[in-house]
């Protein structure tokens, strides 16, 4: 007889079923007292009786075992897993499922099993995620409502030219040596620079300069850059990461406060985006932006690891 009843076993309390039947706890609770029987898991080294294997599955199992593997009398290889034997691996081939309405349904294997967790409800191009291919996805253009909001919030406004020059000078002198992530070509006068990049540079420069005080605080540049980052529409991926890296110069609250305006938030956002575009991988030797990509990646690594 078991030393405990089912109720006491579930409650994890002392049971005197060996002395009193029913036990004292069940008598007080006025419930049925039944002995607890522990169920032991049964293991087997052979296939379950009645399990039928077709010739294809037998051949797959045979190909996965060494030549000297033991074989049962029926010709099927002896499995050391029993009923828990793992399924045969499908090496990228289409797997035929049971026929439906008289016609077989062919299930296409997706790269790294993406079709399993996307469930076929999300369209995607398999060729874009295979090794050697980079995604061509670009963020959508800013909507008319977003552009109107950005104009009303002054996201496209720039300080006077004298303030711009002083902020840029302060950035190049104090910020760029510690954050060498801005490509000089992005600020070439022949092409209009990214407004997101400009506002981010002005923010970083305002943290080490006083020239902006007559124009506005660092919070002004931060608010503009933040709006452009989230609502500015299509941006160059590298410029977006650089902007997030520069936004971490502004830290209005301490680390004990939960906020999306902290340095940690922006530097980790930049790190996540860097992984998405493969910045952690060594760029090709002939890549034009090889040096920039490496500087940007290791600048993020140094700051994230602090």
TrEMBL record:
Pfam families: Fungal_trans (PF04082), Zn_clus (PF00172). Residues 44-65 have a biased composition (Polar residues). The keyword Nucleotide-binding does not apply. GO terms for biological process: DNA-templated transcription. InterPro entries: Amide_Lactam_Regulators, XnlR_reg_dom, Zn2-C6_fun-type_DNA-bd_sf, Zn2Cys6_DnaBD. Residues 44-106 are annotated as: Disordered. Residues 4-33 form the Zn(2)-C6 fungal-type domain. This is Cutinase transcription factor 1 alpha. It comes from Penicillium subrubescens.
């Amino acid at each position: 007889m078991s030393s405990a009843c089912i109720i006491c076993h579930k409650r994890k309390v002392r049971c005197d079923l060996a002395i009193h039947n029913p036990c004292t706890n069940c008598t007080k609770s006025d419930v049925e007292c039944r002995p607890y029987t522990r169920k032991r898991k049964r293991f087997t080294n052979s296939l379950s009786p009645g399990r039928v294997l077709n010739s294809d599955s037998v051949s797959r199992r045979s190909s996965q075992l060494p030549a000297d593997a033991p074989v049962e009398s029926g010709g099927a290889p002896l499995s050391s897993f029993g009923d828990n034997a793992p399924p045969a691996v499908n090496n990228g081939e289409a797997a035929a499922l049971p026929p439906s309405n008289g016609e077989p349904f062919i299930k296409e294997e997706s790269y790294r099993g993406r079709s399993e967790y996307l469930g076929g409800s999300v369209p995607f191009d398999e060729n874009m995620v295979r090794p050697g291919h980079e995604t061509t996805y670009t963020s959508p253009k800013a909507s008319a409502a977003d552009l109107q909001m950005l104009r009303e919030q002054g996201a496209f406004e720039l300080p006077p030219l004298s303030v711009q020059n002083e902020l840029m000078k302060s950035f190049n002198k104090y910020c760029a040596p510690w954050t060498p992530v801005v490509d000089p070509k992005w600020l070439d006068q022949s092409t209009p620079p990214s407004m997101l990049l400009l506002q981010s540079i002005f923010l970083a420069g305002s943290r080490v300069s006083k020239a902006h005080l007559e124009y506005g605080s660092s919070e002004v540049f931060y608010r503009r850059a933040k709006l452009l980052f989230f609502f500015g529409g299509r941006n160059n991926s590298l410029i977006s990461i650089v902007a997030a890296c520069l936004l971490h110069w502004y830290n209005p609250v301490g680390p004990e406060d939960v906020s999306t305006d902290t340095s940690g938030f922006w530097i980790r956002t930049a790190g996540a985006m860097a992984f998405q575009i493969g910045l952690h991988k060594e760029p090709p030797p002939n890549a034009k932006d090889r040096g920039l990509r490496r500087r940007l990646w290791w600048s993020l690594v140094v700051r994230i690891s602090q």
